[in-house]
Design a protein that fits this description.
Layout (H helix, E strand, L loop, with lengths): L8 H4 L3 H4 L4 E4 L15 E4 L2 H9 L4 E3 L14 E7 L8 H11 E12 L4 H6 L15 H10 L2 E9 L1 H4 L4 H7 L4 H6 L3 E8 L18
Parallel strand pairs: 1-2, 1-4, 2-3, 4-5
Antiparallel strand pairs: 5-7, 6-7
Length: 217
């Protein structure tokens, strides 16, 4: 498939195999840039009426909904993949949305997360992460992300960094090769990342998060 014109297409090519042929819940589907690569039964949600209209104009299934309003209007256990591309940093309660993603997935289903990086050299030179027009509310370190995934019932399987000098070109082989660079160097030159995680069980109940707030602790 032609990836030219697809946002972050170079690094997106590294997660594309997870979406193909699967029923995907694309939460924050925008204009269907990624939804069109997903399998039968896929469904997009977006707060923008124009984005939903753009999806429907391509024959894609999408509906308007604010992702801060949970539960989402989608059936539980109906999807093989949940896609959250540059959404988690904008919603009011990221952990709650990850828990909702767990509900939507079949056992063993996958979560595909696309996230910006706040503290890389590239991002510091390019943007004011919290004060710019992007509307970021949160940022996520790799360690913090692993913890949130664990609380939400997921385990991380793959992690890719988006190197802008290559990431806007659909060169999957070259992008895979770049991932072998030293992680620290690649992180500092990257503007975003992709994480693939597998659903391994239900989310932890709130009292299981920590003993710190338990009565009598």
């Amino acid at each position: 498939m032609d990836l030219n014109g697809v946002p972050l297409c170079g690094s997106f090519s590294l997660v594309l195999d997870v979406l193909r042929g699967e029923a995907v819940a694309d939460l924050g589907c925008n204009g269907g840039h990624y939804l069109r690569f997903c399998g039968p039964g896929s469904q997009g949600l977006d707060i923008s009426r124009d984005s939903v209209a753009a999806c429907r104009a391509q024959g894609l299934s999408a509906q308007q909904h604010d992702l801060n309003v949970l539960p989402l209007p989608l059936p539980g256990g109906a999807f093989g993949v949940v896609l959250l591309s540059h959404v988690l940093e904008h919603v009011h309660a990221p952990l709650l949305l990850l828990q909702e993603a767990n509900r939507l997935l079949r056992p063993g289903g996958r979560l595909v997360l696309g996230l910006p990086i706040e503290d890389s050299l590239y991002s510091r030179l390019r943007m004011d992460y919290y004060g710019g027009p992007e509307g970021h509310l949160y940022s996520f370190s790799r360690r913090n992300l692993r913890r949130l995934l664990e609380l939400a019932g997921f385990t991380q399987e793959r992690f890719y960094l988006h190197l802008p000098i290559l990431g806007f070109r659909p060169w999957p082989r070259l992008n895979r090769l770049v991932q072998r660079l030293p992680t620290g160097l690649l992180y500092q030159l990257s503007g975003a990342c992709w994480c693939i995680a597998r659903r391994v069980g239900p989310p932890l109940r709130d009292p299981e998060f920590s003993s710190y707030f338990r009565e009598g602790a």
